[in-house]
Amino acid sequence: MDYNCIVIGGGHAGIEASLAASRLGMKTLMITQNPDRIGSLSCNPAVGGLSKGNLVREVDALGGEMALLIDQTMIQYRVLNRSRGSAVQAPRAQADKLAYQNAARRSIETCRGLEIMMDTVTELIIEEKSGAAKRVAGVRTARGHEIGATAVVLAAGTFMEGKIFIGEYDAPQGRLGEEAALGLGNFLRRRGFVVGRLKTGTPARVDGSTVDYRKMERQDGETAAPFSFGWDSENTPFPSRPNIPCWITYTNPKTHGIISANIHRSPLYGGKIQGAGPRYCPSIEDKVMRFPNRDRHHVFVEPEGLYTNEMYLNGLSSSLPEDVQELFIRSIPGLEEARIVRPAYAVEYDYLDPLDLFPSLESKHLEGFFSAGQTNGSSGYEEAAAQGIMAGINAALKTQGKEALVLGREEAYIGVLIDDLTTLGTAEPYRMFTSRAEHRLLLRHDTADRRLTPKGRALGLVRDERWEGFTKKLAALDTIRELLERREFPKTEDDQTGQGLEAFPPEWVMGVSLDNKYAGYIEKEKRIIGRNAKMERVKLDPGADYGRMQGLSAEAREKLAKVRPRTVAQAARIPGVRQGDVALLMVLARRAAKTRNTS
């Protein structure tokens, strides 16, 4: 059973990695502990959001699947930050969790050249090369299979040596009721990988028939619109979708008092959990203890899907015992009679230090071994999918002997995400924000296809129909631009050339209008990017011995040896590397390039 590529895990990173590799001609195997849980929305029943919606659309523009999956299964759609600037607006949709899961599995099962296997990977097969170099050659599984592969993508989510916590109870599980993937994390430790522990959590789900919605604020969605660019480019009408309301309520001093009185029973505060939790999505215990002067916190009550009446209590992530959960939940308006169907819990799991990855997401220690998603220290479905498609693409390119695809920070939120992880590292679950992208004005969610579809086409991930529609859209945008210009600056009093915009989709017209509105700022950004591009073009030797380079500061030597940047620009983004260090690297890199060219 030999394959070109093996993907470990069937979550959002695993889906995109498997599909990308197989669509690029790789014979691919997805190994997952439970095929029924492929594409599971383990935590919140939603896709998209601020900057995350941009990631979904970028994955789609490259030829990925997540946007198509949420388009088929959304039950509420909204654009967040409508009242703010276009650069920080983003789509978000509630999903029917079961329908999403079924659609995800269907996409895997119908992809040519892609197979599914139910098992647990416990070890990698490593081929020793000349010197100290090593290359991945396949995997070993819990049931004793040895399967060869040229490339392996690790996308284990929270399952690698996972352990869940509910008060005094703990168990080796990656999700409540699902066994952890034991063995691989410890194997990687023994082989010298830097493996740490992180923690995340999820709130309780309650029976919707026991919720009093009259005491809550209703939150309706907007008219549904697609995440995927394929509907427009392939001239296919977007089908109507359900618009199921969400609800908002709030904690109160009584809630906070119950939590404070029982904080000693929290494994997070009792010392049982060692891994760092997500700073920007803290548990309710964290919120109460860190912000004692706050008298209330939002609770978003969200439907899990059309197939169930379970409601997700967004904002109440917890690891407190079940009896305490019941007490504090029932202290909240509208939830006084709520019956818990699934308890909240925390999960601690292994992750690989992302500083040990190249920007291609390939390991610096093991050739052909890639990693994506929460295994790299990120959080969120969207961040996982973005890394997954890049890991799958680069695993395929590696197998084909081609240069890796690395997106710049000015090209995509995906570029920002991966550069942050592989250049800065993380000691807590990393979450994408618009504020992390210094060129966010260029990275609007509506421009993702213009930025990335040509790259997806060059790879072979964008179908003929999509490409034909995309080229027609570009021509239409030029026409819209001309019509807007003539309407704004009519040449004669009877000039009617400003009319005709109604023939184009409103979002296309709005996109061109925004281009025009921010044209001056965009040109300024492009000039800055042009200056930075000079440093991006200066390559560094990833195997350079920085410890022997005279003139570098001691801190720079240490940081450069750890990150091993691929360009001078990446080196300049490493904290602790000074301007003088960067100037020296420029001189040394150019001298090395000149030597190579003359030899």
Give a verbal description of the structure:
This protein has 599 residues and is of the alpha+beta class. 36% of the residues lie in helices and 19% in strands. It is built from 19 helices and 22 strands. The strands form 5 sheets. Strands 1, 2, 6, 7, 8, 9 and 22 form a 7-stranded mixed β-sheet that branches. Strands 16-17-18-19-15-20 form a 6-stranded antiparallel β-sheet, with no helix packed on it. Strands 11-10-21-14 form a 4-stranded antiparallel β-sheet. Strand 12 (173-175) and strand 13 form a beta hairpin. Helix 3 (66-73) packs across helix 4. It is globular and about 80 Å long. Mean pLDDT is 92; it is low at 490-498.
Structural class: alpha+beta
Shape: globular
Low-confidence stretches: 490-498
How many individual β-strands? 22
The separation of the N and C termini measures 45 Å
Helix content bin? 25-40%
In DSSP terms, counting alpha (H) and pi (I) runs of 4 or more, how many helices? 19
Compute the average pLDDT: 92
User: Assembly type of the shown chains?
Assistant: single chain
Q: How would a crystallographer describe the biggest sheet?
A: 7 strands, mixed
Keywords:
seven-stranded mixed sheet, alpha+beta
Write the layout of secondary structure elements.
Blueprint: E1 3-8, H1 12-23, E2 28-32, E3 46-48, H2 52-62, H3 66-73, E4 74-80, E5 90-95, H4 97-109, E6 114-118, E7 121-128, E8 134-141, E9 146-154, E10 163-166, E11 169-171, E12 173-175, E13 178-179, H5 184-190, E14 195-202, E15 205-207, E16 217-219, H6 230-233, E17 246-250, H7 253-261, H8 267-270, H9 284-290, E18 298-303, E19 310-314, H10 322-329, E20 340-342, E21 345-352, E22 369-371, H11 381-399, H12 413-424, H13 448-459, H14 464-488, H15 506-517, H16 519-536, H17 554-563, H18 568-572, H19 579-598
Parallel strand pairs: 1-2, 1-9, 2-6, 9-22
Antiparallel strand pairs: 3-5, 4-5, 7-8, 8-9, 10-11, 10-21, 12-13, 14-21, 15-19, 15-20, 16-17, 17-18, 18-19
